[in-house]
Design goal:
The protein is an alpha/beta fold and about 350 residues long. The protein is built from eleven helices and 14 strands. Belongs to the radical SAM superfamily. RlmN family.
């Protein structure tokens, strides 16, 4: 099977081309993918596909979504956390968050992460490998199957750095956005990055209308370098310049993610410095109480300090929200469940 291709890694155009090359009508490609997006992963169960075609498909492709290793539902049932396993045994996490306006899934783009952000559990142990776009898509399809509900929004904020897996991340976006795919609007898709400056500029040229989220977490280089190794490669000034380039190219508002760590980046002077840094930008700041990680000693800011930080930004004209905490009772923060699973098993999976 591992010498064959997962059909989920093919776009409609790819499959049309394959059909033509194999002397079949190209409309069969859409019929096959229609079944796939309905959750049918057995070629023989595709009732309107002739046997001669299903035989060819079985000889060249396999259809696989990840299996569920563990599933956790929060007490209020607003959050469902999945540990998914791929065919090679690697484990990743996905989280479904249920809102009044629809269901959002947080997907992983890599197994582990090499970026080394110190407040993120996903990066402990480094990166194992990147996921193909079909493997990322499989998270969405499996989550829909497990919850019995449609996913209407996607955030690429799970383990991994999407821009370090650039081609697969963009192919995934285009596949879920396609009318013949999940038909999720680009403005309902958010890509989060720690700030790989050249890739942000490259993304600006892609003619996409997705939301770009930047993990900023500090108003200056000195603080940012303490928690994010990427800050030693690209300065805050370079990052903001790339963000302004992205805004000018796409006319899309950028979200800046800011995890508040007690006595590190949460003082009034930091809020004022951040307000100055972002003044005049088409942007929004999302303040995040930092998550507790067993291996780390970070402490979240107090509720009062978070509110005060928010008020300073708001008074400076910076659109600001405080992230609603969801799934805290099931360790739904990025990387925590996978890390615990790996620690409790004698062999890395």
């Amino acid at each position: 099977m591992f010498n064959m291709i997962n059909l989920l890694d093919l776009s409609l155009e790819d499959l049309k081309k394959w059909m033509i090359e194999n002397k079949e009508k190209e409309f069969r490609a859409k019929q096959v993918l229609d079944w796939v997006y309905k959750g049918v992963y057995n070629f023989e169960a595709m009732k309107n596909i002739p046997k001669v075609i299903t035989n060819k498909l079985q000889e060249n492709f396999y259809l696989s979504v990840p299996s569920v290793v563990q599933k956790y539902v929060s007490k209020d049932e607003s959050t469902v956390k999945f540990l998914f396993k791929y065919n090679d045994g690697n484990i990743i996490e996905s989280v479904v968050m249920k809102y009044k306006h629809g269901n959002t899934i947080c997907v992983s783009t890599q197994v582990g992460c090499k970026m080394g952000c110190t407040f993120c559990a996903s990066t402990i142990g480094g990166i194992v490998r990147s996921l193909s776009h079909g493997e990322i898509l499989g998270q969405v399809l499996k989550a829909q199957e497990e919850t019995g509900e449609r996913i209407s929004n996607i955030v690429m904020m799970g383990s991994g750095e999407p821009l370090d897996n650039y081609d697969n991340s963009l192919n995934f976006i285009r596949m879920v956005n396609a009318e013949n795919g999940l038909n999720i609007g680009q403005r309902h898709i958010t890509l989060s990055t720690c700030g790989i400056v050249p890739k942000i500029r490259q993304l600006a040229e892609e003619n996409l209308q997705i939301t770009l989220a930047i993990s900023l977490h500090a108003p200056n280089d000195n603080i940012r370098r303490k928690t994010m190794p990427i800050a030693s490669v690209y300065s805050v000034e370079e990052l903001i310049e790339a963000c302004n380039y992205y805004i000018n190219k796409t006319n899309r508002r950028i979200t800046f993610e800011y995890a508040l760590v007690s006595n590190l980046n949460d003082k009034e002077v930091h809020a004022e410095e951040l307000a100055t840094l972002l003044k005049g930008m088409l942007c929004h700041v999302n303040l995040i109480p930092v998550n507790k990680i067993d291996e780390k000693d970070f402490k979240s800011s107090s509720t009062n300090r978070i509110k005060n930080f928010s008020n300073i930004l708001l008074k400076s004209g910076i659109q600001t929200t405080i992230r609603r905490e969801m799934g805290s009772d099931i360790n739904a923060a990025c990387g925590q469940l996978r890390r615990r699973y790996v620690k409790n098993n004698s062999k890395e999976v």
